[in-house]
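Researcher: Re-running this chain for the archive, since the previous output was lost when a drive failed. Same request as before.
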Amino acid sequence: MSSPPNPHPLDPLVRLMETLAERSQTRPAGSYTTKLLDGGPAKIGGKIREEADEMIEAADEAGDEGRAHFVYEAGDLIYHAMVLMAWRGVDVGEVAAELARREGTSGLVEKANRPANNHETT
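Model: Regenerated structure tokens:
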């Protein structure tokens, strides 16, 4: 009997994306995710900004508790970013493919090669 394959550490992100995509379609009552999705980019974006601020604040906290708080806030930020992805109909695999495409390319070179109509401000 063979043992089950070792789970990949990013499997939870794939499962979360599947759940978010399903919730985006079904919008179950009483779901926090449904509430966010119903609010659209304004509501979800507000939460992303809030969670990004909290993650940045947690980055300055010292010790193991500070590290744990940072990881917790990073989880919140990633969750809310993925909710916005689900709202937009973008799968985490698409983002992974974009990151793979950029792999080995200097960030400055990649940015210089972007189309002029890119809306990025940084």
